[in-house]
Amino acid sequence: MAQHFPVQRTCPFAPPPEYARLREQAPLVRAALPGGEVWLVTRHAEAQRVLSGEGISTNPATPGHPNTLLTPEPPTPEQTAALQESAVGHFIDLDPPEHTRFRKLLIPEFTVRRVKELRPSIQRLVDELIDEMLAKGREAELVEDFGLALPSLVICRLLGVPYAEREFFQSRTRTIVSATEDPAAAYTAMTEIRTFLDDLVTAAERDPQDDLLGRLIDGGQLTHRELVGVIFLLLVAGHETTANMIPLGVLTLLRHPAQLAALRADPAGWPMAVEELLRYHSIVDWVAFDRVSVRDQEIGGQEVREGEGIFVLGASANWDERVFERPDEFDVARGARHHVAFGYGVHQCLGQNLARAELEIALRTLFERVPDLRVTVADEDVPAKYEGVIFGLKALPVAW
Ligand code: HEM
Fold this sequence. Notes:
Elements: E1 3-4, H1 18-25, E2 28-33, E3 36-41, H2 44-51, E4 56-57, H3 77-86, H4 98-106, H5 112-136, E5 139-141, H6 142-147, H7 149-159, H8 166-177, H9 183-206, H10 212-219, H11 224-255, H12 257-265, H13 270-281, E6 290-293, E7 297-299, E8 302-304, E9 309-312, H14 314-317, H15 352-369, E10 374-375, E11 397-399
Parallel strand pairs: 1-2, 3-9
Antiparallel strand pairs: 2-3, 4-6, 5-11, 6-9, 7-8, 10-11
Helix pairs in contact: 5-7, 5-15, 7-8, 7-11, 8-9, 9-11, 11-13, 11-15, 13-15
Bound molecules: protoporphyrin IX containing FE.
């Protein structure tokens, strides 16, 4: 019988418990969704195989692509048309060669070197946020005051959003991130942000600066609508993900004081600790890894037919005991860089170097500058987004 799907997490420190059983059962498991059936990919090797993109499409318009909204009916033609309009420039949903055209233009903006140049400004933003927190007293709520604020400010900096407009930008992106709580408000905020980004692109087209947007405009390869789509994608892909990892990182490191003490004693360990946090939490799971087979093929010993939908369980692959010993143990020294928390293959996260720098600088600086930091509620009372698309905490009350 097909596995009922989706299954939920039950605590902030592990993927859904059913994943271990599915992984044991087979590398590919059949699952029943409200709108049809899909293959679930449970193990690391097969996850990499599918995400490599060979014989696989990620485009929602490809026949058989699974419906990630999990509604019993497929989208109506009107809904599909609206989706296609907002999909212009949204290259995460495109297959090569269209995908390659966008990816090639964006790669130089996110290289290790380019991110290294950005590090001093990320450090400044982190320090300013901590200054504000410390100035307010001896308590804070880390999701709102720190986690959400940092990636939004970094994107503002990257896109050249004028300082005076940052508050508007931040409040709208915050509402979008809370989509599960108020879908109508999130939709309005999304429309407002798109208009805002459209105006930003128009202004940059009139007077291009030496920044990401200016360089894309000077390159002359993208239309106005494509440019708006591309920067919208950077915003949504880079915001909630990084924002959720920061408070999860704080909570997890505070639960492992000996490992935190080792990092304080030797900050050279931070990059490896960030990789382990990414693996351990695997906040981006099946919903981003929605694929469809475009030919009959064998994957992990299983015959997969053309037009059959696939969800890669990233959180299961990152806890695959064939690749990570004692995967349920958090170990900052394990060397977890081969995780698939940033995906793998053609669509592997474009912003991963930036995300790594943000996480490392945010966590290191917070623990350096607020050495007495503690969470003020018990683990079981920390509210988590179990129903969300990307896993994270709703709030993390702290004091010092
Ligand atoms: C901890 C933070 C982050 C995580 C866990 C994360 C995770 C991911 C994952 C799993 C994918 C692959 C999706 C797929 O295979 O379909 C992806 C793609 C992508 N990410 Fe990230 N991401 C993070 C931060 C960022 C940041 C900071 C940016 C940029 C500002 C960014 C931009 C993108 C883009 C543009 C893509 C699409 C790449 C493509 O399709 O070629 N991400 N991310």
